[in-house]
Write a structure and sequence with these properties.
Number of helices: 6
Number of domains: 2
CATH architecture of the largest domain: Roll
Bound molecules: FE2/S2 (inorganic) cluster
CATH class of the largest domain: Alpha Beta
Length: about 150
Amino acid sequence: MTAIRVNGKTHELQDVSEETPLLWVLRDHLGLTGTKYGCGISECGACTVHVDGQAVQSCVTLLSEIGDSEVTTIEGLSEDGSHPVQKAWKELNVPQCGYCQVGQLMMAAAMLKSTPNPSDDDIDAEMWNICRCGTYPRIRAAIKAAAKEMNQ
Ligand code: FES
Ligand code: FES
């Protein structure tokens, strides 16, 4: 049996291989389906979660790599959608189809911890997630709005 810390709780995992990607542990074994599968090869960012506060692509992160680290998914970013990035995304109507947006939110939330006042260049450099719907201008605006709130 393996245990994993996710969103502040310890979960016991029965009969789950240590070689299972974190994405499938979250979705198939813990029912946390907010995290999405896109490419499976760390190229799109749809599966981004936080491991000890850092943005990580869960499709290429094995359960064996997690150890005692704390995993945070969109379900744990805030209990009620009150994280500044979630509020800004809603206020600016960022999503189109929505598929990529959880990964975008998790990447943005991690970025704002290390870069609290990002420039356009910072956002372009750190937000490499793909959006097939082309919501990039609204993502950039929402990150700036969230940064403003967080810096008040
Ligand atoms: S599904 Fe993980 S980066 Fe695309
Ligand atoms: S909102 Fe559709 S892929 Fe990004």
